[in-house]
Amino acid sequence: MIRIALIDDHPLTVNGIGSWLQSTGRFEIAGAAGTLAQAAALMEKLEPLPAVVILDISLGAEDGLEFIPALKEICAKRKAALPGIMVCSMYEDAFLIQRAMNLGARAYVTKSAQLDEILAAIDALLTGDAYWPKNKPQKQNWQALTRRENEIVSLIKQSFSAKEIAERLKINQRTVENHLVHIYTKTGYSSKEELFSS
Known about the structure:
Layout: E1 2-7, H1 11-23, E2 27-33, H2 36-45, E3 52-55, E4 58-59, E5 62-63, H3 67-78, E6 84-89, H4 94-103, E7 107-110, H5 115-126, H6 147-156, H7 162-169, H8 173-187, H9 192-197
Helix pairs in contact: 2-3, 6-8, 7-8
């Protein structure tokens, strides 16, 4: 039985996808978590690690993609292989898809996807392949952004304000605005609205 972990803060999604995966007779749900801390604790205790992790981008006010580097650290510490990571999100945004790719996810499906598409993505991960939307982004000017700048763009695309981003990242609002100036310079955009719709 192939073990899968679900990292999502919506119980309906966890229960829905979890029940469907188990109904195929191929998968078992190794565990579920709704925050970054819960996800890290789950991975620390699972033995062995699951074959696949299905991860949402928005975990309440937290950026779910930040779990990918944390999972890499856990795997390195345990000398274990990195599970196949599939991002399953409501967002169909090229920047977020690119960021997921850059951090180490190997599959991305939207929450509006058909169940057979989710299954195809899981099967791709299990065979060592990748599964990306047909409109998979080309590498572009996002590559020049620092990790902090990537975090800020990611939160803007999830409709966070500069004030909320400052609170979320525990920095002051002026620092967020300074980062935005650098982001605009590097990407060629001139406003948060342009970033949001890019």
